[in-house]
Amino acid sequence: MRRAELFATLPLLLAATLWACEKSGEETTPPDDTATAPPSDGTPTEDAEPADAPDPAAEQKAAEEKAAAEAAEKKAAADAQIAKGQELYGANCAGCHGPGGEGKKGKGPKVVGEGALPLDPPKGAKMRKGVQFATAKDVADFVVAKMPPKKGGSLPPEDYLAILAFDLSANKVALAEPLTLENAANITINQAPAAPAADAGAAPAGAPAAAPAKK
After folding, report:
1. Rounded CA gap, 120 and 10, in Å?
2. Separate counts of helices (H) and strands (E) for the chain
3. Integer Cα distance of 20 and 6 in angstroms
4. CA-CA distances (angstroms) from residue 53 to 62, 133, 134?
5. Cα–Cα distance between 46 and 177 in angstroms, integer?
6. What are the Cα distances from residue 91, in Å, to 49, 94, 141, 145?
7. Global pTM?
8. Which of 20, 62, 106, 141 is 20 to 30 A from 71, comparing alpha carbons?
9. Which one, of 167, 160, 161, lies nearest residue 179 by Cα?
10. How wide is the angle at C-alpha 103 spanned by C-alphas 99 and 109, nearest 5°?
11. Tens place of pLDDT for every residue, the chain, 215 residues?
12. From CA 86, how far away is CA 72, in angstroms rounded?
């Protein structure tokens, strides 16, 4: 081949080679899915798995377990308060009321057992006069103000409550949580006697008395 012919055909060969390379690249390049995928609006597709629905039974069980754990925690705190109150009772109260709360003649009334902490003050009471013990708070208010004798209010408030918690426990009053002045008001230890029923024939209070019948 003559040199002139070779140079004449060379541009054609180069063009054909470039065209073949471009064609091959188009065939091997993967398609771009992002270019054709429709925009997502948050609506689940048919292939998407549905979210797990809440299980009422499981939720109920979890709530019950939580409540049981909280109740156990409160009961443990109440037991600790009672144990502390037992120690404080021995140090501050047993000298007058006896080591078992049975009382000591001439010193202090019984505070444990049948007849302990009655609604009305017992006859001959020297310190408790006109004070009724209807609730645990009534007892708490009295002991804070009057106990120990001539030293009322000398103990921290939490110590008085611990002693009373021990005394209530010794009298078989169950405590599900530590004793406070607030919940002590809800603990009934003595029922006040019911008011006598009104006479059906009696005139209501404030009404004028009926005039006597004329003979």
Report:
1. 128
2. 7, 0
3. 21
4. 16, 55, 52
5. 54
6. 69, 7, 20, 18
7. 0.66
8. 141
9. 161
10. 140
11. 555 555 566 566 566 665 565 656 555 555 555 555 555 565 656 566 666 788 999 999 999 999 999 999 999 999 999 999 999 999 999 999 999 999 999 899 999 999 999 999 988 888 998 999 999 999 999 999 999 999 999 999 999 999 999 999 999 999 999 999 999 999 999 987 776 666 555 554 544 444 444 54
12. 21
Domain map (residue ranges) of the chain: 63-184
For tokens 């064609």, the residue is: 23
Contact 110, 116 (CB under 8 A): yes
CA-closest candidate to residue 190, choices 111, 116, 119: 119
Burial (0-12, 13-18, 19+ Cβ within 10 Å), 177: middle
